[in-house]
Amino acid sequence: MDSSELSSSSLQTKAQEQSAKIKNVGVIGAGTMGHGIAQVFAQAGFNVKLNDVSSDFISGGIRRIESNLSRSVEKGKMTQDEKNGVLSRIIAAPSLEDFKDREFVVEAVLEKIEIKRDVFKKLDKICGNGVILASNTSSIPITELAALVSNSERVAGMHFFNPVPVMKLVEIVKALQSSELTIEVIRALAVKMGKTPVVVKDTAGFVSNRVVCPMINEAIFVYEQGIASKEDIDTVMKLGMNHPMGSLELADFVGLDIVLDVLDVLYKEYEDPKYRASPLLRNMVRAGYLGRKTKKGFYDYP
Ligand code: 3HC
User: Fold this and answer.
1) Ligand 1: which residue has its CA nearest to atom 49?
2) Ligand 1, from 65, 72, 166: best to mutate by most atoms within 8 Å of Cβ?
3) Strand 104-107 relative to strand 90-92: parallel, antiparallel, unpaired?
4) Could you tell me the CA-to-CA distances from 10 to 19, 143, 180, 210 in Å, in that order?
5) pLDDT at 6
6) 25 DSSP β-pair partners
7) What's the predicted TM-score (pTM) here?
8) Ligand 1 mean position, distance from CA 296 (Å)
9) Counting atoms of ligand 1 from 1, which one is nearest the CA of 259?
10) What residue ranges of the chain have pLDDT lower than 70?
11) What is the 3-state secondary structure (H, E, C) of 43-108?
């Protein structure tokens, strides 16, 4: 075994040891992504504290978890006892101060840089400085968030996909400051959650959104130019490419505001016109037609 293999195997050992000690995790944000992340952690046996800006949001997230689990029970994929066990491992944490005892934290709050900055600054004061702080952001630079906390090497991206309980991928985003140990601990946790992790560098859009958002944007341009109906564009992608959803359907599913945010970040960062957002997408966001979450996007969701 050469020295690089030796150091890599000792890194793996350290990461396994450190990840095995993590039992108590915190999830900030109980929305579409946060509630799913909390559910998957709890299903993997972790004790989860779930935080959001109001108790109503937290109970809304817990209700969504309960309904996901009930569906699994109805389908015979989980017993009632297992469901109760998962729910018993999730508790509401109305204040971030409740995260003092957390051994790992993942943030999934709104995609607004000011809000994320505030959360990371608060976590820096509340959590011990060895606690890994991960962000589920789809577009905000992890390097910028890491710069806000002491011991920046413990910060990295842990990017899940919607719906979190179903989608296998976790994109682990390595900030300029992230240590190899941080990355390997997150990788071990993702595997424990039944996910398949990939590690990517902290660049705008990472891999996933750099590829998928321009694809969605192009589908919107095609629609805007009247080349085909929205249904036919989606049929092309479903039947011709075997995608589970058409690109316009996917835009509604992800949220048009999120797609636009990502495209704007890509455009600003790479200064390449190929990332310019379609005017129709921008106007739909202005109109508040954000997709499923507002019951109106390219399709209606009555
Ligand atoms: N929460 C939990 N489970 C869900 C769910 C949800 N919101 N929606 C569907 N499921 C489960 C169902 O219960 C079912 O489970 P089962 O196999 O155990 O019975 C399974 O998923 C399949 O669901 P359905 O049969 O109802 O419907 P579909 O077969 O049409 O699948 C889908 C639904 C999984 C959402 C599928 O259409 C799909 O994979 N779509 C693409 C999703 C995608 O691309 N996501 C990534 C978006 S990009 C992103 O998140 C990154 C961000 O940064 C922007």
Assistant:
1) 161
2) 166
3) unpaired
4) 14, 26, 12, 34
5) 59
6) 48, 104
7) 0.95
8) 19
9) 54
10) 1-6
11) HCCCEEEEECCCHHHHHHHHHHHHHHHHHHHHCCCCCHHHHHHHHHCEEECCCHHHHHHCCEEEEC
